[in-house]
Design a protein that fits this description.
heterodimer, A: 5 helices, elongated, B: mainly alpha, 11 helices, 67% helix
């Protein structure tokens, strides 16, 4: 991820000095979005299994999900070197992309692991 | 909870786990079957050509600011002049191409195959679940829900006294159907067969009106505001190099 856009990152930074011409590479942008989606999905599945094994019920589980997603966002931002503008279009994309599709997977795996460990 | 049901561990071993595993495996199988059935017919040369022209025009539009105005104007003229520009479509031909696309039976065939490969496994799995596992209380969701969800989660059990958070096996099937989409996109890669609704929309949008998209590309090329960026790039480069050196 870091290797893709190094040059555009540098350009973007200095462009604040002169003028704002968008120098995004659409393919790189798309690949970044895909990486966000994959890491969201992966972490929601893993988080679901963890929540199930720990036996969270009710709101605790959903709060756990929000926590996991928040940590993911922070991790992604840290991976992008805290300069979101050079990798993504907007903050919303980083924070919200894949949030609801991840919730479905989370609920499924949470239920699955919870049933495995605690119900039977 | 006062009215906890005690579920037999045999239900876990013989209903819950097999059901989930089968759902995953069927998803994988469907992916590969639809990959095999996808007919790779030779695409029409004209359509490919038009697609390439569109890509080129799009590249020109994206990189318009990196060439001098004169060069940009020349290229734009090459694409969009009214006599023999690449993006200019004569009125009569446009209709012709459209009709030709519609009469092409391969397209409809492909679409139908894709639909079938989606519907058949789902019906089969549903029938299988119904046949073997009807009426089990298979799982319990770890969060409370209101009565409204009873018909969704306890499909197949007609008991109004069971707590709503217990899930019947048929409903567990539906939960799997929706929730495994994320897992499939992880294990099968991006272009898996499970999210074809999205892709089908893309395909039909791309395949059906090449001439219209030529026209659209021409219009958007015509309204590009040219602003040559390179004079300022020396300052940019200077700034970047200074930053690198310091």
């Amino acid at each position: 991820m870091a290797g893709h856009n190094d040059s555009s990152a540098a350009e973007k930074k200095s462009s604040e000095l002169t003028s704002d011409i968008p120098t995004f590479n659409a393919e790189n942008l798309q690949s970044n979005m895909k990486i966000i989606y994959y890491s969201r999905t992966f972490l929601s599945i893993i988080g679901g299994v963890i929540a199930g094994i720990l036996g969270f019920t009710g709101w605790t589980g959903f709060i756990f999900y929000f926590l996991v997603m928040a940590i993911t966002s922070v991790g992604l931002v840290a991976k992008a070197g805290f300069s979101i503008d050079s990798y993504f279009n907007s903050w919303n994309q980083v924070i919200l992309d894949g949030f609801f599709s991840g919730l479905m997977s989370f609920v499924l795996f949470w239920t699955f692991a919870y049933d495995m460990v605690h119900i039977f | 909870m006062a009215e906890d049901l005690v579920l037999d561990t045999a239900i876990r071993d013989w209903v819950l786990i097999p059901l989930s595993v089968v759902m995953v495996l069927i998803g994988v199988l469907r992916h590969f079957v639809s990959k095999l059935m996808r007919s790779n017919q030779v695409p029409d040369a004209k359509i490919v050509k038009e697609g390439q022209v569109i890509v080129r025009a799009r590249n020109l539009r994206a990189g318009a600011n990196f060439i001098p105005f004169k060069s940009f104007r020349a290229r734009r003229f090459y694409y969009s002049n009214e006599e023999n520009g690449l993006l200019f479509v004569p009125k009569g031909q446009a209709q012709n191409a459209q009709a030709q696309m519609f009469s092409d039976p391969n397209m409809a065939m492909d679409m139908m195959k894709k639909n079938l490969s989606m519907i058949i496994p789902q019906t089969l799995t549903f029938a299988w679940v119904n046949f073997f596992f009807s009426g089990f209380v298979a799982a319990k969701i770890p969060f409370p829900l209101t009565q409204r969800f009873r018909s969704m989660l306890q499909n197949g059990i007609d008991l109004s006294t069971v707590d709503v958070s217990y899930v019947s096996s048929r409903s567990w099937y539906f939960l799997n159907l929706f929730g495994l989409r994320g897992l499939f996109s992880l294990i099968l890669g991006e272009d898996n067969a499970t999210d074809d609704t999205q892709r089908m929309m893309q395909m039909s949008g791309f395949g059906f009106d090449p001439t219209r998209s030529l026209g659209a590309e021409k219009d958007s090329l015509d309204i590009v505001q040219h602003d040559w960026a390179l004079p300022k790039f020396e300052h940019r480069a200077e700034a970047v190099l200074r930053k690198v050196l310091s």
